[in-house]
User: What shape does this take?
Amino acid sequence: MQYQRSSTLFKAAQEVIPGGVNSPVRAFKSVGGTPIFVDSAKGAYLFDVDGNRLIDYISSWGPMILGHVYQPVIDALTQRAKKGTSFGMPTALETEIARLTIEMIPNMDKVRFVNSGTEACMSAVRLARGYTDREKIIKFAGCYHGHADAFLIQAGSGAVTFGAPNSPGVTQGTAKDTLLAYYNDLESVRTVFEQYPEEVAAIIIEPVAGNMGCIPPQEGFLEGLRALCDQYGALLIFDEVMTGFRLAPGGAQQRLNIKADIATYGKVIGGGLPVGAFAASNEIMNHLAPEGPVYQAGTLSGNPLAMAAGLAMLTALKEDEEMYTRLDQKTERLHKGMEERISTTSLPYQINRFGSMISLHFTNTPVVDFASAAAGDNELFKAYFHGMLSEGIYLPPSAYESYFLNDALTNEDIDFTLDGFDRVIKSL
Ligand code: KE4
Assistant: This one.
């Protein structure tokens, strides 16, 4: 495979866009080499500007769960665009997608739409602080909730990849209100609460972590968080930007049968357009402006094009619950095939999987939190990433990311991937 045109385009981009990208992880900094510029996509395939076809295991970092150019979404967008693209006024469409969202996710009464997962998580934290009249939040090392200041404290995803866990520009004033605990370590959370018994507004967590690679919650961990929040009067915020509408129609709350007080969404809910959302009970949501005192706003929040795409996506997911079983089965096929092949080598490895989220870590230590994820051999990962790319398989360009499978993947695609995987691991 050659990437001449990507390389030319990357040089041009770097002249006018910082790092040549609009989101750092796309720049391949942690795996080296030139980022791939995409020309188009269809189903499970990406077509880059050099004419290479790549099997897509990122699905735009989650949104394209039904594959690229999913016709009902395209049709909804095309139709809606003819009526105007933005008004800054309420539309019935927003009520329709809000009603469907509340129907699909358990335990929530109202939802507010915003434009990104970051905005959803940032707003959820402000709402929790306003509702509880407390200032501190607990987050987990390695979890990523977007790039709002309060979260860039040992963030996962891009920030960790860059090895700059505390981003410059985040003030000490902000950092002091974000307390750190460790994933799958309930004791570390209890210790924080004992230190600040009446100051914690909320815990925010990825119920299944996807920004340290995929890390499932261990038995009793989330239940323990629920109990600690109830004991200390803090809210439990599930950041379901990744897991929402991916692990089940009702996301991790449904799949894990745990009730959050506030849940945030992104990615899938927008069908590929910029949408974030956060949802909670009437009691909590009625604290939000214009109903209540907690301010939050957005010019393009509830944008009709984004709502049309999101509504078409959620409608398709609600009407085809079998999709979740198919997606889990495809991910299991990939997992088992990888396991069969890599277990015959002397490579250190762990494969973590939950639903259609999966990740490979080059370490012999179980990956259960950020520290164990960070212990993976990144040099091996880089060689693995580029080996798979040369086989026509596009994986997340970071060891701290989950793969995101989509329903357009066929068993033949999975088997093609496994053949490539076999050649690559034997070359490492
Ligand atoms: P956005 O602001 O990127 O829409 O969402 C932030 C966010 C919040 N919560 C979770 C659990 C997330 O995974 C994300 C964003 N995910 C990353 C990929 N791990 C987005 C990719 C990127 O930064 O370009």
Q: What stands out?
A: The two ends are 19 Å apart (CA to CA). Confidence is low (pLDDT under 50) at residues 156-165. Residues 71-319 form a domain with the Aspartate Aminotransferase; domain 2 fold (CATH 3.40.640.10).
